[in-house]
């Protein structure tokens, strides 16, 4: 078990957040059981007020989630200094079986948080609490995920043992190595570039055309493409973007991008990527709500349009940033291309 | 403008201390009229005003303002409705004593999307209207009863409401000041605002600008 | 945007009206941040110093152990080491400890071999008094701690006893003005022959070997080979040392932080209690705000601004305080907790540094719990019924 200030900070913020989320879960249970929008009784008024509290908790919770993601990365880096064989966050995550699952649960919880807050945003603009029961049924499933996050975190740090050797990112993301990371790193860079740059105009075209049409299938298609492009982007980061950042064709680590040595470029890339991904999910997901009535329809329409436009901008920026890095490298290097 | 239809308000329903503050009250106040609700203390005048002003929801019945039902709105939309349409003068003034005159008047404007400059302009106009320009920076606790009443009026008008409610506005004023207050309310009525006053002061319900006087007793209403 | 700014304006005004009440809270919170921050900054600074020191060490150090204690190692082992592929350089070293009964201090004596340049790592440490390092017999270069302990200056004489109960004198020709006092504070550098004599290391033996590896990725592999050809020796890898330092200091700071967590919890409870107990005046004021057009979310924004304002101001004050305490005052008392006790205490000043990581950790340990503790009380305040103020209930 490794005890350092980063780990302690993680526990403190996670425990606080879990306590709040559990309280929000209890409120959700009360609302799902007793909500009656037509009632004028004091009990209903109390439930309405508690629904505000649950929403505030999730809003605070979101910011704490984001901070704990960054803190988790920083902790992994600090822990990598004491785990033999681990040179960066990848090595720390490899150190035991809770590492990567912990990371994925965290990311999933943050994404679901954003989606819930979007639902809340729509609900809060309606005059009749129409979406409130649905909102809290969803929260019944979201809140326990935070408990899972805490549990995984706990087991991960408990199991960390500085005596056990881990592998560094050079091994995990090794070309011709074994495992998922290695398979991704082994993807041929040039075809990957073609796939990546070929997909983006397609995505932008769909987005810009359907932005004008605003048809249901347009939104579903755009969101679906958003998911695919997100996955493609992750592959692109590992297969060719990160080597260009490190200026080394054999280095493919998706975490070392966030180091100071590389100007913290990873933070910018992932911020753009996740921002674009989440906002491109919204038009399709929100479309599902339109059947709930005219008022919902009107509120949702405005939000879909906004989400669509901002996501297009973010996707654009996400593609531009690594392209600039690649172009600058190729212009400077002179001695042949990186992957030759 | 204001339609109240068989509205009741019961506090602590089902408990030993249950109170029927308002019971089966119906009334209609057309736009631009001034109505006074009179009655003894505890008759439910204040509660009726809070229901009309959308400060609380009735236990049963319906209230409409300008054709729009307001009795079943979520709390947030009750506030939005009040912000747009209602200005209220409270029985106890309900001013924040430690704050200056201008800050008290500006309170309703803070949650709005107005720039600081616009807020200042609005406050200037209001203070000029109630003749308190020179006392703007004074903490309210240093003002006389009459002056505090004027601050309360200015604050009630900050959001330029169509409906002005006043709960016992002359409770802390002498006759002369009460007359002055009624003159100000008359001017507001002339601007097309709808005014409802709860008061048992003859200076108020006897004023010539009052269009109708209603009497409340034990939560029930009758017109005079 | 305007709405947030307007509400912020009102919040600041509101805080100023209650400044004495919240001052106590802010002082307490600043102190808590100060405590946490001092531990973090100090540990960070010590780790940095240790890292610098470790960088100057050889890749592998080979020692001989008998009954678990280090004993001199035959110089002939150096020949065996040449068989191991991947070793760039092998340097035999003479060094040891010298105990002074009168001051209860332990000096570290290092033997310097002019010809073989055994202490190339020391070349990276700035020296005062000599140009480069060239020590004749009867000469010594001292660390700051020795100079102070013996009240010596350059040019004066240091006397040391040999195991055969004779006394030898050495002229002080130089002093370490260490990049890191952590390594050189208690060091006496002597010519290798003198060191042998003082330490009683016989001819044919050395204290240990420094080994430098050409390919740094191969250090572990080479270390394993050395362990095979020289059984009975202890092979210490530089990385292991770095890791050990890191772990020790992380552990100590972690432990200290855990004891401080009790304070944090108590503080959070206090904040909760305080925030929950709205005075009649505060309740009335919120009722007035709600009665004049503020809704629940406006009050919540105001309360959030309040919480952020108090916590961030206290955070900055605590952080500045701890920066001064650690890097200007040298962290008295706290330093003992983290470094451990010793007579010859390096009073080195730390290189000031505050990283974003540390700030993130501090925010998580202080501001986040504070905000969490105020969420529910803020909401309770925000849901005060305007009706109650109107009816005077």
The radius of gyration computed from the alpha-carbon positions of chain C, rounded to a whole number of angstroms, is 31 Å
Helix count from the secondary structure assignment of chain B:
7
CA(first)-CA(last) distance of chain C = 35 Å
The CATH topology of chain B corresponds to: Rossmann fold
Number of strands of chain B: 10
Average pLDDT reading of chain C = 82
Could you estimate the helical fraction of the residues of chain C in percent? 40-55%
Query: How many domains make up the 3D coordinates of chain C?
Result: 2
Overall geometry of chain C comes to elongated
Instruction: Catalogue the unreliable spans of chain B.
Output: none
* Measured distance between first and last alpha carbons of chain B: 20 Å
Number of strands of chain C: 14
Largest sheet of chain C: 7 strands, mixed
Q: Beta fraction of the residues of chain B?
A: 25-35%
* Global morphology of chain B: globular
Describe the structure.
The complex is a heterotrimer of chains A (340), B (224) and C (393). Chain A is mainly alpha-helical and 340 residues long. Chain A has helices spanning 5-34, 42-80, 89-94, 99-124, 132-159, 169-172, 180-185, 189-213, 216-246, 265-287, 294-333. Chain A folds into 2 domains: 5-167; 170-333. Chain A is 76% helix and 0% strand. In chain A, helix 8 packs antiparallel against helix 9, helix 8 (189-213) packs antiparallel against helix 11 and helix 10 (265-287) runs antiparallel to helix 11. Chain B has 224 residues and is α/β, with parallel strands linked by helices. In chain C, 53% of the residues lie in helices and 18% in strands. Classes of the chains: A mainly alpha (340), B alpha/beta (224), C alpha+beta (393). Chain A binds chain B through residues 38, 40-42, 45, 48-49, 124, 127-129, and chain B through 13, 57-60, 71-77.
Give a brief outline of the structure.
The complex is a heterotrimer of chains A (340), B (224) and C (393). Chain B is an alpha/beta fold and 224 residues long.
Properties at a glance:
heterotrimer, A: about 350 residues, mainly alpha, 2 domains, about 75% helix, flat, B: about 220 residues, alpha/beta, Rossmann fold, 6-stranded mixed β-sheet, 7 helices, 10 strands, about 30% helix, about 25% strand
């Amino acid at each position: 078990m490794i005890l350092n200030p980063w780990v302690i900070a993680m526990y403190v913020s996670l425990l606080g957040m879990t306590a709040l989320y559990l309280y929000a879960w209890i409120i959700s249970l009360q609302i799902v059981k007793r909500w009656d929008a037509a009632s004028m009784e004091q009990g209903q008024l109390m439930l309405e007020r508690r629904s505000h509290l649950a929403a505030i908790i999730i809003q605070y919770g979101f910011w704490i989630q984001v901070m704990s993601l960054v803190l988790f990365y920083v902790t992994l880096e600090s822990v990598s200094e004491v785990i033999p064989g681990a040179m960066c966050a990848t090595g720390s995550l490899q150190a035991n079986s809770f590492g990567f699952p912990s990371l994925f649960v965290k990311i999933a919880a943050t994404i679901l948080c954003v989606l819930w807050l979007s639902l809340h945003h729509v609900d809060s603009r309606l005059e009749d609490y129409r979406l409130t029961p649905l909102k809290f049924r969803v929260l019944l499933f979201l809140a326990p995920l935070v408990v899972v996050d805490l549990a995984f975190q706990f087991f991960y740090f408990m199991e960390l043992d500085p005596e056990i050797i881990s592998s560094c990112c050079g091994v995990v993301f090794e070309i011709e190595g074994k495992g998922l990371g290695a398979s991704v790193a082994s993807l041929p860079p040039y075809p990957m570039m073609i796939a990546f740059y070929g997909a983006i105009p397609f995505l932008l075209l769909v987005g810009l055309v359907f932005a004008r049409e605003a048809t249901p299938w347009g939104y579903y298609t755009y969101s679906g493409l958003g998911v695919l492009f997100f996955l493609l982007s992750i592959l692109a980061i590992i297969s060719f973007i990160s080597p260009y950042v490190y200026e080394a064709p054999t280095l493919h680590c998706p975490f070392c991008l966030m180091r100071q040595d590389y100007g913290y470029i990873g933070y910018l890339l992932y911020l753009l990527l996740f921002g674009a991904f989440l906002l491109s999910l919204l038009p399709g997901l929100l479309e599902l709500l339109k059947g709930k009535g005219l008022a919902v329809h009107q509120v949702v329409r405005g939000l879909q349009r906004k989400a669509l436009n901002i996501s297009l901008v973010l996707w654009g920026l996400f593609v531009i940033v690594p392209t600039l890095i690649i172009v600058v490298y190729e212009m400077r290097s002179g001695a042949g291309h990186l992957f030759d | 403008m204001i339609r109240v239809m068989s509205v009741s308000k019961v506090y602590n329903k089902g408990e030993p201390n249950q109170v029927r503050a308002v019971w089966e009250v119906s009334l209609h106040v057309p736009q631009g009229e001034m109505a006074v609700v009179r009655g003894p203390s505890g008759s439910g005048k204040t509660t009726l005003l809070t229901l009309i002003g959308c400060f609380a929801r009735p236990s049963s019945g319906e209230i409409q303002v300008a054709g729009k039902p307001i009795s079943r709105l979520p709390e947030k939309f009750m506030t939005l409705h009040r912000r747009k349409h209602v200005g209220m003068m409270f029985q106890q003034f309900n001013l924040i004593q430690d704050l200056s005159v201008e800050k008290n008047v500006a309170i309703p404007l803070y949650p709005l999307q107005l720039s600081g400059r616009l807020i200042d302009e609005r406050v200037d106009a209001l203070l000029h209207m109630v003749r308190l320009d020179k006392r703007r920076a004074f903490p309210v606790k240093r003002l006389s009863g009459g002056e505090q009443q004027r601050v309360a009026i200015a604050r009630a008008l900050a959001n330029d409401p169509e409906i002005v409610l006043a709960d016992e506005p002359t409770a802390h004023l002498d006759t002369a000041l009460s007359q002055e207050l009624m003159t100000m309310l008359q001017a507001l009525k002339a601007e097309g605002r709808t005014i409802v006053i709860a008061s048992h002061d003859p200076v108020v319900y006897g004023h010539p600008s009052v269009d109708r006087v209603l009497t409340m007793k034990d939560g029930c209403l009758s017109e005079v | 945007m305007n709405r947030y700014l307007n509400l912020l304006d009102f919040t600041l005004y509101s805080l100023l009206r209650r400044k004495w009440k919240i001052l106590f809270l802010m002082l307490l919170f600043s102190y808590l941040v100060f405590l946490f921050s001092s531990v973090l900054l100090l540990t960070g600074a010590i780790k940095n110093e240790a890292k610098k020191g470790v960088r100057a060490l050889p890749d592998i150090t080979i020692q001989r152990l008998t009954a678990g204690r280090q004993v001199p190692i035959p110089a002939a082992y150096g020949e065996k080491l040449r068989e191991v592929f991947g070793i760039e350089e092998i340097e035999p070293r003479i060094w040891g400890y010298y105990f002074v009964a009168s001051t209860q201090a332990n000096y570290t004596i290092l033997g310097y071999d002019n010809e073989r340049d055994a202490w190339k790592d020391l070349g990276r440490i700035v020296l005062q008094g000599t140009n480069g390092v060239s020590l004749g017999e009867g000469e010594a270069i001292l660390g700051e701690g020795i100079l102070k302990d013996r009240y010596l200056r350059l040019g004066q004489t240091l006397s040391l006893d040999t195991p055969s109960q004779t006394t030898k004198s050495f002229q002080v020709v130089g002093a370490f003005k260490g990049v890191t006092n952590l390594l050189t504070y208690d060091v006496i550098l002597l010519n290798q022959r003198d060191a042998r004599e003082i330490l009683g290391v016989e001819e044919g033996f050395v204290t240990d070997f420094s080994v430098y590896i050409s390919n740094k990725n191969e250090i572990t592999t080479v270390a394993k080979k050395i362990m095979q050809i020289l059984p009975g020796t202890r092979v210490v890898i530089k990385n292991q040392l770095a890791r050990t330092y890191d772990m020790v200091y992380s552990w100590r700071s972690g432990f200290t932080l855990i004891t401080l967590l009790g304070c944090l919890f108590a503080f959070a409870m206090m904040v909760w209690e305080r925030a929950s107990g709205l005075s009649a005046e505060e309740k009335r004021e919120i009722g007035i705000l709600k009665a004049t057009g503020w809704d629940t979310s406006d009050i919540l924004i105001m309360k959030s601004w309040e919480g952020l304002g108090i916590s961030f101001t206290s955070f900055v004050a605590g952080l500045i305080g701890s920066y001064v305490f650690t890097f200007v005052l040298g962290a008295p008392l706290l330093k003992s907790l983290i470094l451990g006790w010793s007579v010859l205490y390096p009073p080195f000043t730390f290189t000031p540094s505050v990283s974003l990581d540390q700030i993130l950790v501090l925010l998580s340990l202080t501001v986040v719990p504070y905000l969490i503790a105020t969420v529910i009380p803020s909401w309770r305040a925000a849901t005060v019924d305007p009706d109650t103020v109107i009816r005077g209930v």
